[in-house]
């Protein structure tokens, strides 16, 4: 058994903060390749950041699983799976390929063996999830202390979206935590699904927390998304104190207990409304149809299209039973003028969209323009961040179909997603000016890890390897 010195010296003089001036110089791109003598610097800088700011080396050191007489220890598996997720692996086969093609060679001290993908699978099935959750929590607490939620606020309000993400489905194999649903042809499909709380606004959009939907117990139904959202709102408050001023929720979550839970946690809600049968909506339809809009303004979307917005609002509504405070109903109509190519000609068209919102904010607390912005950014999250989780981070791929391994892998994906985005969008203030997609930088980092002259172990193994 090997053992490295156990005493970390976190305050060493040579710990360097990434030098921004130098980075700018060394990151020039030429013909699609990074040039300069510092190729691969980013992955080293990231490792330095992760250990210096988030104590990443200690997290690796703490990692545990309950395999008996394991030859390859949990900290090594931790580093491999974390960076597999960081580099957006699509499958275990790809991880295996990376393991064989020396992608991880510089992440692990050379006297230790790299695991096979089977070893990774076995370890994940026995992973210690409590420690892992604790580590996730520490990362988010650190983000909060660094004023991350405030930095990404919308008109000064910290906003969080809650939404469901389906992971993967199968008709062939079922584990004990699978949810079930009947398909149209009468066959049964098994799937896993989570509910995620994610920051809205700013660039980082980190995931504050997530909860697994639990399967039916006896005759009961599978746990619904709104029940899980309720749990999430309560646990966010317990874990992080007040991390958000307002929750934005889709129509699926338009339920009195959720509004009450948010209020009890000291936050507000902005909820999209669709159900026209609800009394509050019926009243809104009647009142708003009888008068002209209360506000109008013009704005531009991210593509520069001009939008003409009309808004109606009514506060003090008590038509929603079980909600303890009066609500404010808002109707927004957006006229977006854009240019499209039809045949060979440019044509201007106007898209008209209608949106109904309910909020617990009064008119004097938050103006209607801000509520509209919150709802708009929420839609961005749905289209950018949740999709990003699926397409670039492959959260919907089944790596190992086993209840513990699924949870362990989501935790790794979330941890990698958060640290990646905190590094690029929160820590590096000038990343947007690089004018390059994050995905491309990550690919460059992976290649640099394979070929560059790097000293990653210096950062990743500051706490040594645990020998249990
Ligand atoms: Zn399952």
From TrEMBL:
One of its GO terms (molecular function) is DNA binding. Residues 1-33 are annotated as: Disordered. Pfam families: DDE_Tnp_1. Keywords: Membrane, Transmembrane, Transmembrane helix. It comes from the Bacteria. The chain crosses the membrane at residues 74-93. One of its GO terms (biological process) is DNA transposition. InterPro entries: RNaseH-like_sf, Transposase_11. Residues 17-32 have a biased composition (Basic residues). Residues 220-419 form the Transposase IS4-like domain. This is Transposase DDE domain protein.
């Amino acid at each position: 058994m090997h053992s490295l010195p156990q005493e970390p010296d976190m305050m060493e003089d040579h710990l360097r903060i990434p030098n921004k001036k130098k980075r700018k110089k060394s990151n020039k791109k030429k013909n699609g390749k990074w040039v300069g003598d510092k190729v691969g610097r980013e992955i080293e800088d990231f490792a330095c950041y992760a250990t210096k700011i988030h104590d990443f080396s200690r997290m690796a050191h703490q990692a545990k699983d309950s395999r008996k007489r394991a030859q390859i220890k949990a900290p090594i598996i931790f580093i491999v799976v974390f960076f597999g997720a960081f580099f957006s692996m699509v499958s275990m086969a790809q991880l295996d390929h990376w393991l064989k093609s020396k992608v991880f060679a510089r992440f692990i001290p050379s006297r230790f063996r790299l695991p096979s993908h089977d070893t990774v699978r076995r370890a994940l099935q026995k992973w210690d999830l409590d420690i892992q959750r604790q580590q996730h929590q520490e990362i988010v607490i650190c983000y909060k202390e660094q004023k991350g939620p405030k930095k990404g606020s919308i008109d000064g309000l910290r906003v969080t979206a809650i939404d469901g993400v389906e992971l993967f489905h199968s008709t062939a194999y079922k584990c004990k935590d699978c949810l079930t649903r009947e398909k149209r042809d009468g066959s049964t499909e098994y799937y896993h699904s989570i509910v995620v709380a994610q920051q809205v606004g700013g660039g980082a959009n980190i995931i504050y927390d997530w909860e697994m939907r639990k399967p039916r117990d006896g005759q009961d139904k599978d746990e619904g998304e709104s029940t899980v959202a309720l749990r999430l709102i309560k646990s966010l408050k317990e874990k992080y104190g007040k991390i958000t001023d307002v929750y934005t929720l889709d129509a699926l979550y338009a339920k009195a207990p959720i509004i009450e839970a948010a209020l009890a946690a000291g936050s507000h809600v902005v909820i999209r409304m669709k159900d026209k049968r609800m009394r509050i909506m019926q009243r809104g339809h009647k009142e708003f149809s009888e008068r002209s809009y209360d506000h109008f303004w013009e704005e531009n979307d991210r593509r520069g299209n001009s939008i003409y917005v009309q808004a109606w609002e009514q506060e003090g509504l008590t038509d929603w039973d079980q909600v303890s405070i009066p609500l404010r109903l808002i109707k927004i109509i957006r006229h977006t003028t854009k240019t499209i190519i039809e045949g060979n000609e440019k044509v201007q068209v106007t898209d008209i969209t209608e949106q109904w919102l309910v909020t617990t904010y009064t008119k004097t607390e938050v103006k209607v323009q801000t509520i509209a912005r919150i709802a708009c950014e929420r839609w961005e999250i749905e289209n950018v961040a949740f999709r990003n989780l699926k397409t670039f981070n492959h959260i919907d791929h089944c790596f190992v179909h086993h209840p513990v391994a699924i949870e362990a892998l989501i935790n790794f994906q979330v941890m990698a997603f958060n640290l990646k985005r905190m590094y690029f969008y929160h820590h590096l203030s000038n990343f947007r000016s690089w004018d390059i997609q994050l995905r491309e930088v990550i690919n460059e980092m992976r290649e640099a890890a394979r070929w560059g002259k790097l000293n990653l172990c210096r950062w990743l193994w500051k706490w040594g390897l645990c020998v249990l």
